[in-house]
Design a protein that fits this description.
Blueprint (H helix, E strand, L loop, with lengths): L2 H12 L1 H4 L19 E8 L8 E12 L15 E7 L8 E11 L3 E4 L6 E4 L17 E11 L6 E4 L8 E3 L12 H6 L3 E4 L5 E10 L6 H4 L25 E10 H5 L5 E16 L9 E13 L4 H4 L6 H6 L10 H4 L3 H9 L17 H9 L16 E4 L33 H9 L65
Antiparallel strand pairs: 1-2, 2-12, 3-4, 3-13, 4-7, 5-6, 7-8, 7-9, 10-11, 11-12, 13-14, 13-15
Length: 505
């Protein structure tokens, strides 16, 4: 491997050090009360579907931990919120482009005639469908639609362009996967909601919003029970049974646009993140109706934010989590102490020093973690650093690095020689949990395998092995993930799990 590639690889790999740990489900106290605007994961990557390599895919997932059987009302988006995907292409940590999604709901008001003769009455049904929806779309008693707007400049005052699907600016969202009796072929039904969208000026792509199988994999329950397992993989400990999200769905906002649509006049590296906002005032209607359960007013107020996953959960202190949710990347200097003096390694030391038989502190000792400041807040020159450097937290994607086909992807991304993987953006099949566990405990202080030859011989020079006494250990949450867990075509996340299955007999 030549020197240029070595520098490029080492810089990207270092960016894994604290930016992610796992999926951002219920990441702050306030959003636990507002699940419809709770962002769970954000993905940004060069599209790797055949023939779409010149596009970028952005996926913002919301409404965490959905059970397929969660009826009768399932998991609609909030019609009084706005959901946004922001892109910074010049490095000032301020959005240059925003894609804003605004949802609406409608009831079919379907009724059945109950009784006969003069006793007959039309009575509205309580369910979202009264028959097989994919065989007869008119059987749906509930629908969601949305508009998507491209905003150039400030997300509130910039120039707005309405996304068009043919002659229509309104797009439809499929019903959730209620079950096999309601949908004989849900995957085909949902495919019909993948739609072309045009914002003009060559910014023509595809959009899909709907329920999908949660692509994230994590040993969630035990991890937040003080890491109630020994997080070491000896080569045989990986098991799908450790994935607590194996039976969960999520709602995805997926957008695919040409690279040229988002890079602007920058250097080809973009930063991206997702937010959800609500009106500042919400007054409940004491006589609530379907169309008016409340009255909303006032300025839009950001209540959810997500770039790299689990930053808010395991990096930001508990009392600052809601502040982070409401903040913008340009103001992330206020959270710098959580990067220079990270607490996660110290917590793992408390939990596992004895289990690992270590005589003293196992957390990396190079405090302050100036290497993490570069990785977490600024990016690396020539790799994932934007044209201007402003300390901020976001997913950074170098659009000049070609995508890797699904069959050739490594779940460990750049550390395994796959430059198109995490942390150069994030793909659904990247195992960010295992990467982060190892790096936060000092893997980059030891030689690593940058060129994918199977041997850990590449020294990054960021710190020394003495700084990280257990940095060479194979830390893992023991829940495997790779590109086979997702699809190879837009929107990449698999069809959602059904709420019920037909009796095979």
């Amino acid at each position: 491997m030549n020197i240029k590639h070595t520098i490029l690889l080492s810089a990207i790999v270092a960016a894994t050090s604290i930016q992610v740990q796992a999926s951002s489900h219920r990441e702050a106290p306030n959003v636990t009360r507002l699940p419809t605007i709770d962002s769970t994961d954000f993905y940004a990557f060069r599209s790797y579907e055949a023939g779409r390599e010149t596009y970028v895919t952005l996926i913002a997932n919301y409404i965490p931990l959905q059970d397929g059987y969660g009826g009768p009302n399932y998991f609609a988006m909030d019609p009084n919120a706005i959901y946004e995907i922001h892109v910074d292409n010049d490095g000032d940590a301020v959005e240059d482009i925003t894609f804003q999604f605004d949802f609406a709901q409608a009831s079919g008001d379907f009724a059945l005639e109950i009784g006969t003769g003069e006793n007959a009455k039309q009575v509205k049904i309580p369910l979202k469908n009264y028959g097989g929806v994919d065989a007869s779309p008119s059987a749906a008693n509930f629908s969601e639609s949305y508009t998507v707007t491209k905003i150039d400049g400030d997300r509130r005052t910039g120039v707005k362009t309405t996304g068009m699907g043919g002659m229509n600016n309104t797009f439809s969202k499929p019903l959730d996967n209620i079950g096999d009796k309601s949908f004989s072929d849900y995957a085909s039904y949902a495919d019909g909601f993948k739609q072309n969208v045009s914002f003009g000026n060559g910014c023509d792509g595809r959009v899909f919003v709907g329920q999908r199988k949660d692509a994230f994999v994590v040993n969630l329950g035990k991890t937040f029970d003080l890491v109630n397992y020994v997080p070491l993989d000896n080569g045989s400990n990986q098991s799908n049974s450790n994935d607590d999200l194996a039976d969960k769905n999520v709602t995805s906002i997926a957008l695919e646009v040409p690279i040229s649509c988002i890079t602007g006049q920058g250097n080809g590296v973009v930063g991206a993140w997702t937010t959800a906002s609500l009106p500042q005032a919400r007054v409940l209607n004491p006589s609530a109706t379907f169309t008016k359960p409340e009255v909303n007013g006032g300025a839009w107020t950001q209540v959810s934010r997500l770039g790299m996953p689990l930053v808010n959960e395991v990096v930001i202190g508990l009392s600052d989590k809601d502040t982070f949710s409401a903040s913008e990347p340009k103001d992330d200097g206020q959270f710098a102490d959580y990067v220079t003096h990270p607490t996660l390694p110290a917590l793992l030391d408390i939990l596992f020093r004895d289990a690992l038989g270590a005589p003293s502190n196992i957390a990396p000792s190079n405090i302050p973690r100036n290497d993490l400041v570069t990785a977490f807040l600024t990016g690396f020159p020539g790799v994932n650093q934007l044209a201007t450097v402003t300390g901020s937290e976001m997913v950074r994607l170098n659009t000049g690095i070609a995508p890797t086909t699904a069959a050739e992807q490594s779940a460990f991304g750049v550390v395994a020689g796959d430059l198109a993987g995490f942390p150069n953006g994030r793909r659904p099949g990247d195992d960010v949990v295992d990467i982060a566990l190892r790096v936060v405990m000092g893997a980059l202080c030891h030689p690593v395998d940058l060129d994918g030859d199977g041997t850990a011989t590449d020294d990054l020079g960021l710190c020394t092995p003495e700084d990280a006494p257990v940095g060479n250990q194979p830390f893992s949450d023991l829940a495997p993930l790779d590109s086979t867990y997702v699809d190879t075509t837009f929107p990449y996340l698999k069809s959602p799990l059904a709420g019920s299955l037909m009796d095979p007999s």
